[in-house]
C-alpha cells in the first residue's frame, strides 16, 4: 500500500476542530497527512493507525520562509516534549500529530490561544482579504464606469456581465468571511470572559453559504462553457484561465525560491514583482490577441480579404463579410453595381437584452456607393428599455449644433420616434421606439416615404 | 499595559514565573510544572510558547542563552515584583479564608 493520494480539504481557520477530526478519521483509514495546500492536501497511504491531530497557528509562519525559523524550531521542540510531532505547515497554520491516547492538549489557555489566533489573522488573513476585496471593488468600479459610458454595449456583453457577477459574488463571499471572522472573535471574547473556550463555528450556516457559493461558481462556469461552445468565441477562455495561470506562476516562484534557500523577504519581493509583471504581460497578450483576431473571432461568418488603397502610398486589408442581413442598400436604392460591399451581422444576447447590429459597408473611395447601418435592440425589462432610450438620445454637451427631434409616429408605426438634425438639417439617423424593441437606423440621407415602406416590410415592423 | 494585562496571574503564568526564579529552558519548565503540581497544572506547548514570548515582550523575563537551540530564560525585576504581588494576593485570600471559614469567626461587617 504505497504511494500518495490527494484530497480536497475545505479549510478555514476557525474550523480547526473539524479538520482535526477529519485528519484523525483519515489516519484510522490509513491515510496520513503529508502536505497541505490551499485546496488539495496530500496524504500518504499506510497501515491504519490511531493518531490525534492538532491544528495551531504560529505567527511567524509564512509560505515565503525558506526553512523552519529558529523560533519555530523552539516551538517544535516544546511540542515534541509534549508528545506532538510536527507534520506540515501552510502559512501560519501548523499541524502536529500524536500517537498517545491522551496527549497533553496543545493549548491549555483559551485566552492565549484566542489572542494568538487573532495575532496571526491580523498578519495575513485580514490584510489579504482586504486587498482582494479592494481589487474586486476597484475592478467593479471600472466596470460600472464603462456601464455608464455605454449601458447597451455593456448589458449585451456576456463576458463583461460574467466577470462582474463573478466579482460581485466573490466580494460578497469574502465580506461574509470577514464579518464571520469578526463575529467569531466577538463570540469567543464573550465565551472566554465567562470562563469558556474559543467559540465553535456555526457549521450549518457555513455549509449552506459554502454550498450556495459553490453552486453559483460551478453553475456559472458551466453556463460560460456552454456559451463558449455555442455562441461566443473561445477567447473568453483566456480570461477564465487568467486566475489559475497567475496563481500557478506565483506559487511556482515561491516554491522555486524556497528551494534555493532565498530569504523570506527576498522571496516575497521577487514573487510579488514577478506576479505583477506576469499579470500585465498576460493582459497585454489578451489585448494584442483581441486586436489581431477580433473579439468574437467572427462568429464563423465567412469573409474575404481585399487589399485596398487608402492613399497613394498605402494599401490596407479589409474584411468583406457576406452575412445575410434583412435590409440592404439594394432593397432601398435598387440594383447597385459594386463588388466590394461587406454585409455584416453581429448578434449579442444576454439575460437583459439582445442586440443585433447590421451593416453594409463600402470601401473608402471618392464615389463609393451608399452604406447603411442599423441596430435592433430587444430588451427584457422595462428599466433597461428606459436606460437604452436615454443613452441613445443623449448627445454629448460639447456638440451644440446637433440634436434629436420628434418625428410623426405614423410614418414607422412607432410609439416614439426621433430624427437627428445637424444645424437645422435633417439627417438619415433615426431612433425608432416600439413596445419592447428599439431600432436605430443610420442612413446617409433622410428616408423617403417609399423607403419607409420597404424598411417596415424588411424589418417586419 | 503589562501591569493591566497581568494584574492577576493565571495558574499557568504563576508556575512559569516561579520556575524562572532560576534560569530554566522552556521544555524543562513544562516538566517541572507537571512534577511540582503532580499533574494538576499542565502547560500545553502552544500556550507555553505564547506565554514565554509575551513575557519576554513585556520584559517580565529575559532570554539568557541559547544552547543547542534550547532557549533559557530568567525572571526580571519587574517579573519578580509581579510574582511578589501575586504571592501577597494569594496570601490575602488564604488569610481571609482562615478568618472567615476555618477560624469560625462571625460574618460581621462582611454582608
Automatic annotation (TrEMBL), chain A:
Q: Which UniProt keywords apply?
A: Membrane, Transmembrane, Transmembrane helix
Report the coiled-coil segments.
Answer: none
What is this protein identified as? DUF2812 domain-containing protein
Q: Name one Pfam family in it.
A: DUF2812
Q: Which domain of life is it from?
A: Bacteria
Q: Has UniProt tagged this entry with the keyword Transmembrane helix? A: yes
Q: Which organism is it from?
A: Sedimentibacter hydroxybenzoicus DSM 7310
Q: Where exactly are the transmembrane stretches of this chain?
A: 125-142, 162-184, 211-230, 236-257, 269-291
From TrEMBL, chain B:
InterPro entries noted in UniProt: Metal_resp_DNA-bind_regulator, Tscrpt_reg_PadR_N, WH-like_DNA-bd_sf, WH_DNA-bd_sf
In this chain the Transcription regulator PadR N-terminal domain maps to 22-84
Superkingdom is Bacteria
**Which Pfam families did the record assign?**
PadR
Q: What is this protein called?
A: PadR family transcriptional regulator
Q: Which source organism does the UniProt entry give?
A: Sedimentibacter hydroxybenzoicus DSM 7310
Amino acid at each position: 500500500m504505497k504511494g500518495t493520494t490527494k484530497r480536497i480539504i475545505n479549510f478555514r481557520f476557525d474550523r480547526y476542530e473539524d479538520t482535526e477530526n477529519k485528519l484523525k478519521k483519515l489516519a484510522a483509514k490509513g491515510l496520513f497527512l503529508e502536505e497541505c495546500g490551499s485546496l488539495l492536501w496530500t496524504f500518504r497511504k499506510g497501515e491504519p493507525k490511531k493518531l490525534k491531530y492538532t491544528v495551531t497557528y504560529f505567527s511567524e509562519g509564512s509560505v515565503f520562509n525558506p526553512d523552519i525559523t529558529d523560533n519555530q524550531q523552539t516551538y517544535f521542540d516544546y511540542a515534541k516534549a509534549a508528545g506532538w510531532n510536527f507534520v506540515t505547515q501552510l502559512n501560519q497554520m501548523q499541524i502536529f500529530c500524536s500517537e498517545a491516547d491522551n496527549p497533553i492538549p496543545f493549548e491549555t489557555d483559551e485566552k492565549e490561544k484566542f489572542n494568538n489566533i487573532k495575532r496571526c489573522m491580523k498578519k495575513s488573513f485580514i490584510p489579504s482579504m482586504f486587498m482582494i476585496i479592494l481589487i474586486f471593488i476597484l475592478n467593479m468600479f471600472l466596470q460600472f464606469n464603462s456601464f455608464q459610458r455605454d449601458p447597451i454595449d455593456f448589458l449585451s456583453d456576456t463576458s463583461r456581465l460574467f466577470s462582474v457577477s463573478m466579482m460581485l459574488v466573490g466580494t460578497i463571499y469574502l465580506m461574509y468571511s470577514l464579518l464571520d471572522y469578526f463575529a467569531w472573535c466577538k463570540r469567543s471574547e464573550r465565551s472566554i470572559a465567562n470562563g469558556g473556550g474559543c467559540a465553535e463555528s456555526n457549521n450549518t450556516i457555513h455549509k449552506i453559504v459554502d454550498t450556495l457559493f459553490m453552486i453559483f461558481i460551478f453553475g456559472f462556469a458551466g453556463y460560460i462553457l456552454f456559451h463558449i461552445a455555442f455562441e461566443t468565441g473561445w477567447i473568453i477562455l483566456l480570461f477564465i484561465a487568467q486566475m489559475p495561470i497567475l496563481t500557478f506562476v506565483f506559487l511556482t516562484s515561491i516554491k522555486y525560491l524556497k528551494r534555493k534557500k532565498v530569504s523570506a523577504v527576498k522571496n516575497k519581493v521577487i514573487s510579488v514583482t514577478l506576479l505583477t509583471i506576469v499579470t500585465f504581460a498576460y493582459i497585454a497578450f489578451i489585448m494584442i490577441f483581441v486586436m489581431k483576431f477580433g473579439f468574437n473571432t467572427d462568429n464563423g461568418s465567412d469573409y474575404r480579404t481585399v487589399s485596398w488603397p487608402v492613399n497613394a502610398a498605402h494599401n490596407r486589408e479589409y474584411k468583406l463579410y457576406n452575412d445575410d442581413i434583412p435590409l440592404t442598400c439594394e432593397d432601398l436604392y435598387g440594383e447597385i453595381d459594386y463588388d466590394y460591399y461587406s454585409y455584416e451581422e453581429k448578434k449579442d444576447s444576454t439575460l437583459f437584452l439582445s442586440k443585433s447590429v447590421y451593416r453594409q459597408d463600402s470601401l473608402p473611395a471618392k464615389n463609393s456607393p451608399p452604406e447603411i447601418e442599423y441596430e435592433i435592440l430587444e430588451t427584457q425589462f422595462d428599466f433597461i428599455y428606459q436606460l437604452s432610450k436615454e443613452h441613445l438620445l443623449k448627445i454629448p454637451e460639447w456638440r451644440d449644433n446637433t440634436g434629436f427631434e420628434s418625428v410623426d409616429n405614423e410614418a414607422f408605426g412607432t410609439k416614439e420616434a426621433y430624427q437627428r438634425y445637424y444645424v437645422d438639417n435633417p439627417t438619415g439617423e433615426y431612433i425608432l421606439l416600439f413596445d419592447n424593441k428599439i431600432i436605430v437606423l443610420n442612413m446617409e440621407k433622410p428616408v423617403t416615404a417609399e423607403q419607409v415602406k420597404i424598411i417596415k416590410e424588411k424589418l417586419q415592423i | 499595559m503589562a501591569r493591566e494585562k497581568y494584574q492577576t496571574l493565571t495558574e499557568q503564568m504563576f508556575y512559569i514565573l516561579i520556575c524562572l526564579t532560576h534560569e530554566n529552558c522552556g521544555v524543562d519548565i513544562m516538566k517541572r510544572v507537571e512534577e511540582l503540581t503532580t499533574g494538576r497544572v499542565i502547560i500545553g506547548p502552544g500556550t507555553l510558547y505564547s506565554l514565554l514570548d509575551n513575557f519576554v515582550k513585556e520584559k517580565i523575563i529575559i532570554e539568557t542563552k541559547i544552547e543547542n537551540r534550547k532557549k533559557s530564560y530568567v525572571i526580571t525585576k519587574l517579573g519578580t515584583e509581579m510574582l511578589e504581588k501575586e504571592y501577597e494576593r494569594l496570601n490575602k485570600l488564604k488569610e481571609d479564608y482562615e478568618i472567615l471559614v476555618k477560624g469560625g469567626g462571625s460574618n460581621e461587617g462582611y454582608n
